Amino acid sequence: GTVTFATSGPNTRTTQIFINTSDKPDGNKFLDSQGFSPFGEVVSGMDIVDEIYSGYGESPKQGQIQMKGNVYLKKSFPELSYIVKAEPVDFESLKI
Questions:
Q1: Average pLDDT per consecutive 10 residues, the chain (96 residues; last block may be shorter)
Q2: Contact (CB, 8 A) for 59 and 77
Q3: For labelling alongside 84, which of 3, 12, 19, 45 has CA 20 to 30 A away?
Q4: 3 state DSSP class of 4
Q5: What is the pTM of this model?
């Protein structure tokens, strides 16, 4: 899974991130062509990523998230999953 910043147009990025779960070869090719900015990769724990609730799809409205934050999300999307902790790791120390 590639961790990627969302974009709001050419040569931009937002503070929103997503994990591309495509398992196709060159799964990021489409996103790369759209100007998305990958900055990380899930190197272990994809089973946890697969447990993130995906039932809402693209339903949350970006403007509402920006204006109302978690108040909007918790009220409108009660099943939404939250990441409460993520840690950078030293790539050299990984046993992959």
A1: 83 82 73 81 86 88 89 95 82 70
A2: yes
A3: 12
A4: strand
A5: 0.66
